[in-house]
Amino acid sequence: MSKPEFTAGLNIAMKIPKAQYEATVAFYRDTLGFEVKEDDVSYAPTVSRTHSVRFGPNTLWLDCVDNYGRPDLWLQLHTDDLDAAASKLADIGIHPCDEVEPLENLDSRTHWIKNPAGVIHLLAESR
Q1: Torsional sign, CA 43, 116, 3, 9
Q2: Model pLDDT for residues 27-74, shown as the tens digit of each residue
Q3: Which residues form the VOC domain (predicted)?
């Protein structure tokens, strides 16, 4: 099995409780003056609304999650070999947790994982 390479992705997702969603979108749009655009959420059944924000070289996704009680931050990683990466991570006790947010209609192979502190990462294969 090859040794996988990991690189940072350009997407950051902020999962926001419904009660705080509008104020959070307004903070980035009205207070900070960032360009904020509402986007399609059909790919993520646990997200009821989403807005994208250009955040330097990254995209910050403001995801409204109706059943959340507190906000959460999710990050994206890339690997050149998803199978080798999953195996390497399993060796240290980190296993896919794809149930956190089923994804549909993606063009790449992915797994959700959690780092040792519990922060969720989307691990996507990019070739």
Answers
A1: positive
A2: 999 999 999 999 999 888 899 999 999 999 999 999 999 999 999 999
A3: 9-126
